Amino acid sequence: MLVPMKEIVDAAYAGGYAVPALPSWSELLIRAEMEAADATNSPVIFLSFNHPDAKEFHELIGRLAEKANVPVAICLDHSRSFEDCVLGIKNGCTAIMADRSESSFEQNVAEVSELAKIAHAVNVSIEAELGHVGQGDNYAHDGVSMLTKPEDAKRFYDLTGVDALAVAVGTAHGVYKGTPHIDFERLRDINAACGRPLVLHGGSGSGDDNISKACTMGITKVNIVTDVFVTMNKTIRELALPDDQAKFFLRSTQKAVSDFAKHTFEMTGCIGKVSGKNSANEATHGNVFHE
Ligand SMILES: [Zn+2]
Question: So what's the pLDDT on residue 57?
Fold first, then answer.
């Protein structure tokens, strides 16, 4: 079932695990990731943005979530304007990430607080970011600058009323240039100060053991996007199908994404954390790509 993201991250925080947040901007991705969540009794979060088909895709996610009977949230990722956040709510997201991480602390608090009131009024959750998670291709700089300060995180949480807070502890978006170093001491201090759900962006390529460890230290949502596409790319490369069999790349990539999603559930510790599908709805997720 489709739920406000708060329900998923609160349960994860209480249970000492995290839930992966995976890309949803194609039907193949949605079906593959939902199939994985359904098969492993895992909650899942779909990342989205306001593309032209967003509303239809969100409706599809909602229908599949009903059949799977696992808790599912749709989070508008990195929304940087007031209008975009409101449109995300209108398009059916059950959470918005209001990213003002490049603004001053005061500006971040002011804009996020306003959006928190709006989102909560319609039972939509809100995530914000404090400190700034940069880019992997600029890791030497971004990996160490603008890390989240524990005392600021606690103040930010208290002032804004957000449901989840993305923190900068050494991860970065995209593909890393260099070896990622996670500042676990900082994460431990942030968690001790806040005592509320934290979010890790830049989960791709950050090291499975690092992610698993972070998921026992207050991280409740791990954004993983690049690695999903790397998985698809690798599958297509390895398949190298001749033209008369080219159509099989859809089935193969969908399976590869589903297998990778299962791996992320295992890595974050959320497998088996929900009760699973209704028996009346068995075999509801056929492959949409008929041959
Ligand atoms: Zn991010």
Answer: 98
